[in-house]
Design a protein that fits this description.
16 helices; 78% helix
Length: 331
């Protein structure tokens, strides 16, 4: 493999580590309800950090945006809004199912669609060539690994009520179908990135110009839903009475999440032509591995049946094999 591919893999691994742990701080919120933490997380990750990042790396992005036609923003904004709904469902799913199972189902579906749709739509000449054969095989192995991990999570969940579990799984599946919309926003927002390069940004930095546009679409449903819950549950007061206690949770979550996608954007450039397809699959694999390890380290699997633990180990092994299959052909 080339040096650039090794760099891309290392950056993708780092992105997976950051994203796989971005929900972990929520476990340590002692006084704030879910909606308070989520509102801070949404504002930090979807508004403050994307704009800070683009101004720090590219300069004034509005000069770039002004040079583009309105239709260049439609796909990133609309896909970003769809992903914003998925992000709400994601927070609910992880709370109900735990990190290991929630990540496995959501990221599994998101990985499948987020990998194949950009591959087929943007790189049809590669998608059905011999070059992509190992990627297709790798995706099949990846889905098998995710399915085994989800089965292991279900074994761990065995003591919980079927009705609650069924509804939580349904939410997770819906979330998984919508989750890759953020990758679509990035992949199909390439006109913005190209314009940023024309104005002097490097290829590695150009993707930063896409994030504020895409994430603005995701900000609206997240802020609206958080505000709705704060009003319905009469929990606005938490920002006055306990603002110091758990505010760090939302801030750290936002920093980890935006850091992950900022690094992923750079890694997709290093990974080459298929950076937003096969690169997305690798990103999801590393994310699942990290989330599963974090779930185990925080005692989510304490007292679980032996079959559940062996199943999770087998799922992670399959994901490792999928990484080996997908990575080399991505150069």
């Amino acid at each position: 493999m080339t040096e650039r591919l090794w760099i891309g893999l290392a950056l993708t691994l780092l992105a997976g580590l950051l994203s796989g742990n971005c929900m972990l701080p929520m476990k340590f919120a002692k006084h704030w309800p879910w909606e308070s933490v989520w509102l801070v997380f949404s504002i930090v990750s979807l508004l403050i950090l994307p704009w800070t990042l683009v101004f720090a790396t590219i300069g004034n992005p509005f000069v770039i945006y002004a040079a583009l036609p309105a239709e260049a923003f439609m796909a990133p904004v609309l896909f970003g809004a769809g992903w914003g709904v998925a992000q709400i469902l994601f927070g609910i799913s992880v709370t109900r199912l735990g990190m290991a199972l929630g990540y496995s189902i959501i990221v599994g579906l998101g990985a499948l669609l987020g990998t194949l749709i950009p591959l087929i739509v943007k790189h049809r000449e590669i998608a059905f060539s011999s070059r992509a054969a190992s990627i297709w095989i790798g995706v099949v192995v990846m889905i098998a690994g995710i399915a085994v991990a989800a089965w292991a999570g279900r074994k761990r969940e065995g003591v919980r009520g079927q009705g609650r579990y069924g509804s939580a799984i349904a939410i997770a599946v819906l979330c998984g179908l919508m989750a890759p919309m953020l990758n679509y926003a990035f992949a199909f927002g390439d006109r913005i990135a190209s314009e940023a390069v024309r104005f002097g940004a490097s290829n590695e930095q150009a993707g930063y110009a896409v994030w504020p546009v895409a994430l603005l679409g995701g900000l609206v449903p997240n802020v609206f839903y958080s505000a709705f819950l704060l009003s319905r549950n009469a929990t606005w007061s938490t920002f006055h009475t306990n603002w110091k206690s758990d505010s760090w949770c939302g801030v750290v979550m936002g920093a980890l999440w935006m850091g992950a996608f900022a690094v992923y954007g750079v890694s997709s450039v290093y990974l080459g032509t298929l950076g937003t397809s096969a690169g997305w699959a690798l990103f999801q694999i590393f994310m699942i591995m990290t989330a599963s390890a974090s779930g185990m380290l925080t005692a989510e699997w304490k007292g679980s049946p032996k079959a559940a633990k062996l199943g999770m180990a087998a799922g992670l092994a399959l994901l490792s094999i999928a990484t080996v299959l997908i990575a080399p052909k991505n150069s």
